[in-house]
Amino acid sequence: MSEEWATTESPRPWSSTGSEPAPEAEGPAPHAESGDERATTFDSDGPETNAPSAPETINTNYGDAENVIQAGAVFGGIHTRTQHINYLSAEWYEAGRLDSRYVEYVRTTFVPGDRERYERFTNDLAESGFGVITGAVGTGRRSAAITALAGLGLPVRPVQVEEDEGWSPHALVCDKGHGYLIDLSDIQRLGAALEQSLHSFAVRARERGSAVVVCLRTGQRTDGAIIGASALPVTAPSGMAVLRSHLSVIHPTVDADILEAHPGMVDALTTASPASAARMAELAYEAHRTGPPENTDAWISMTLAAYQNWHTQLAAWFAEHRSDGSIYERVLLAAVAMLEGAPADEVLIAASRLAERLGVEPADPTGISGLGLASSLDAVKAKVASDRTVMFTDLAYAPAVLDYLWQEHPLVREPLLDWSIRVPKSLALAWPHLVSRHWLELAERHDDFTWVTRLFLAWARSPLTARVAIAMAGHVAALPREGRDMRSALYSIAKAPRDREIALAAVRVCGAYGAVAPATALTRLKWLADQDDDLVRDEVRRTLAALADSMEIHPQMLGELVEWADDPKQRGRSAVAVEAISYLLTVRGPDGTPAILADVLSTEHRTGLPLAAHAWRRLLVPEHTRLAEAAAAAWLDPLAAGRADFGTVAGVLTAAVQGSLPRVVLASKLVDYWRSGATVDGAVNTEVILRLYEHIHAADPLAADETNGGHAGAEPRR
């Protein structure tokens, strides 16, 4: 048994968390199987990464920028000369729910396509607590759902749907006072059983003061409705209305009338999706903020060129650089796009390595015969900044270059990923952050996250890149739809890891996103706990303890852990679960009482009490006495001090021992043991403890005889 779990003196008995990897474990060095260092240097040969093969060309963004709908300014994934904010980041999640700042931004900037219809929907949702939003992908369904749920004063909790893992609303934990957002857009068949399950979940939610909104694609259901649900068919708002809404928040001093009067802006926004219009607002702001041009036409022209991904300009540039002598400049352009912000001389060296990968003749084979740094960068519309880093001279040029390469030169993706994986020691700190950011953005813009998964699998084993790889994978895995490929890879690792390093990385990724989506993370941790490796199991323990700090997911955690503990095969998950249950039962809320007690009260004893009792039942066996002692102290201290509800504590413990004489005896002795060393501040309420004895003994008529009349004759364990 790990002593880490037995302590109750601090909320987390270890320093490392699930999202911050612990110091490198002893054991085989990274890549021990293949004997190389793929993620360490450019010069080494790469190992097998167990990664997916190269995917087919996908050039379409299916509109999932609506996941942050129109939230481009604050949470919007726009790369500029001065900043980058990644809207794929899990930072806009709190424990199990969307970050309140992000929700407020969505509410503030949301523009319904049909305001009257939307207001009717929100009124109906307030009455029924159940709504269905249908529409084409990219029209603002998710934003409409977030805004509607937030309008009810509920924190918004997105639900991950894993159809291939037997997902069902029946298995969802329904907490009090939450807004559940369930996107079923990718479900192939919306059958009667699933609809009934959704209806039942919505009924449970309504009883608990919660609400449910389901997002569907147009045509996914012929009548667009589910029994008992209010319906909202969504149409996209005008692009100009979205532009105005965002500018009013991010740059209220800009005169939106000037933009609305410009013919080019009108043409661009006539058919723009809400997310694209939000991106236009961000670019207009950046073009104005980084140096407002005196000529309004020049400002708008730069905004439009950046919005159109500089496609016309890039097409012309690539056409001019087709000869053998200028192909290297294409390579340099790609390297600068990936490494903008890195030291300029290192970028030039990295470009030569990319050229070598692609079989392109270097521009400076002797080291002194080329154009030189400044002239080479000028040829690709880049320059050396005052801090000696490289930067493009045009707004949002790096993502435009990478998009052009992705669309027009798909064969370069594989060597570009291979080059990205191999980190030069001279850029060991900057490279992983810069490169992972661009692969994340490419994945979102082109709706293809397999490349990010492959990057994670290649980087996860190396000390140089593991931290960034784990953070990147955690961010992606948290996303309901975009994270499916990453979660699938984590599931495969959990079931059959190739080595210790990849197993440890998978555990840490689960810790990074587990507070957001506990169900899928715990499923993977369960299989990882079964691995016959003490270091991996210890990492699972640390991760579970870190997740226990997120009190909102306690009911779901406890339900999963009880299931682990009941494993009929008694695999590794069982022992880990019992320790974790003990720890979870000791976690205290802000008032000093165990958080699980508050959960039981919040569910009005209907579901919380049986679950807590089942958890206690797992501890009330002789081999887990010490674990039970820690939990007993956490529950009895506040009870004796008058801070815990007697009916709840007695109800849980009575249900836990019901019909089992050995458990009644053990529970009685636990109370005696606690009394022998009680250190409760103030007077101990002896009468309350005596009443608790009576309730415990009443659970089995033979208990009183066995314990010589109860507490008086019981001998505490020393």
From TrEMBL:
List all Low complexity biased stretches: 20-32
Where do the segments described as Disordered lie? 1-60
Residue ranges, compositional bias (Polar residues): 1-19, 50-60
Q: What is this protein called?
A: Uncharacterized protein
**Could you tell me which species this protein originates from?**
Murinocardiopsis flavida
